[in-house]
User: Which sequence fits this backbone?
DNA sequence: CGACACGTTGAGATATATCAAACGTGGTGG
DNA sequence: CCACCACGTTTGATATATCTCAACGTGTCG
């Protein structure tokens, strides 16, 4: 059912693998918006697949300093890093109401023993996370505020496009300007001014949790965005730059 | 020989696992300082273990913008992410003269099939990298310049201590102020002023590639450094905070 | 209607970048 | 041995990006 469905979006799983993963689910969970799903340091024994909604992974300092280190969309595992690590170094929280599927680590261990091919795909997902982390470091360390926002919006558009949650130009993004600030290492006040600049330059608007990209090429140029690091399928990238709407394939 | 040796430092490998990894080495390589080891986008078929020297992993933008995303020390794999990814999203270069051991991906594949326990330890290494990436994001996004340097120096001290390359207070760090700037998302001019501040506050000095931490507790406090995200052994962390010199164990 | 969360704007403060120059210092060639 | 150069460090003056503090607007929900 739901798991099978959500795993179709990315083109990485075979039908058989989707079935194995679905069979490994021990439990389904739901959370309200803005709930804490996992607290840093807690030891964990399950992996969590996001079925619906958006999840944030963030590092908190004292003084209420918060840095988002990842935003997860449906089809993503939110804490797969916890399988080799045993406990997480950061917090996980819901941005919207979410539905999750829970897979116990011991079932992943079983999968690892019986199906190394599938194991390597799970490993792959965690290193793609790491690749995205690296781009975020570049963004935080070397881009100006307006470029950081531009880059993040391009990235989000591409990722959501790949799972059918963006048509290539518009998508729902349930983040406040405070959240965007925590993504980009800025204050919410400055995010507000930068969003105005993006609007005035005719690149992009965001109102009521809904993003519309008016000039994707211009936004990509401004944010120095190149999608390679997302490790999406070539055809997705092509359709995205062509502005076509993505069709979900029936099998991988 | 060399591989066996360098893998002893971290306490993660059993003697047998070290032997398996050593047997998987197909080749040894050396590079001069400041050489390019791997270029972004190149497809790769081998994993590389660093035996001697320091390696940088960095993302380059146009305009010569560079952001270091990791610094690797002996015992680290420099491109293990490339095994699931097939091609890397970033560049790898030597900071000093380096010696490397090369393990073909097909041997890792063999290991993955025959030894899932060892496979999970390799996976573990890549997700520890990701955990460090996340802390670097926090550093870049939410800490001030002086805190970023303080945090990086604490981190480096801890990591080098764990492999016997720091006595807990002093270590060789072959980075210029330009490199430190690329680590911390700053300019080299500002790094210079911040290093002076650290010196004047009696926290830390760095001359001729050699770091001396004068007040580790103070430096940790300033940089909000907590070593949990490094996933070091508890006893290493204890000895580090106690200021003891680390002994290398004979077996893991 | 009031309370609350979020967005918007302004004025002024501060951290960091930029540009420019001088200063070691170790190596190299004459 | 000196002259010179390449490279990294140090310092100063000024520019700019971003933050901070404060206020006000706007929509939603009970």
Assistant:
């Amino acid at each position: 059912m739901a798991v099978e469905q959500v795993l179709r979006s990315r083109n990485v799983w075979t039908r058989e693998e989707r079935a194995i993963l679905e069979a490994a689910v021990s439990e389904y969970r739901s959370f309200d918006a803005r709930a804490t799903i996992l607290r840093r340091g807690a030891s964990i024994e399950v992996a969590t697949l996001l079925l619906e909604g958006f999840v944030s992974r963030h590092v908190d300092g004292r003084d209420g300093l918060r840095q988002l280190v990842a935003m997860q969309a449906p089809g993503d595992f939110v804490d797969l890093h916890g399988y080799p690590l045993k406990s997480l170094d950061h917090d996980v929280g819901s941005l919207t109401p979410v539905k999750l599927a829970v897979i116990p680590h011991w079932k992943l261990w079983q999968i690892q023993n019986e199906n190394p091919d599938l194991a390597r795909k799970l490993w792959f997902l965690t290193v793609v996370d790491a690749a995205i982390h690296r781009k975020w470091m570049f963004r935080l360390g070397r881009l100006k505020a307006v470029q950081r926002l531009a880059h993040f919006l391009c990235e989000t558009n591409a990722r959501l496009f790949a799972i059918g949650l963006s048509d290539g130009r518009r998508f729902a993004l349930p983040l406040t300007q405070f959240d965007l600030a925590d993504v980009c290492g800025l204050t919410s006040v400055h995010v507000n001014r930068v969003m105005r600049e993006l609007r005035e330059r005719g690149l992009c608007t965001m109102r009521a949790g809904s993003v519309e990209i008016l000039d994707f090429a211009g936004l990509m140029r401004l944010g120095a965005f190149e999608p390679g690091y997302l490790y999406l399928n070539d055809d997705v990238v092509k359709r995205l730059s062509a502005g076509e709407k993505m069709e979900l394939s029936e099998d991988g």
Observations:
- Chain A touches chain B through 47 residues (CB under 8 Å).
- Residues 3-136 of chain A form a domain with the Jelly Rolls fold (CATH 2.60.120.10).
- The CA atoms of residues 154 and 220 of chain A lie 6 Å apart.
- Confidence is low (pLDDT under 50) at residues 246-252 of chain A.
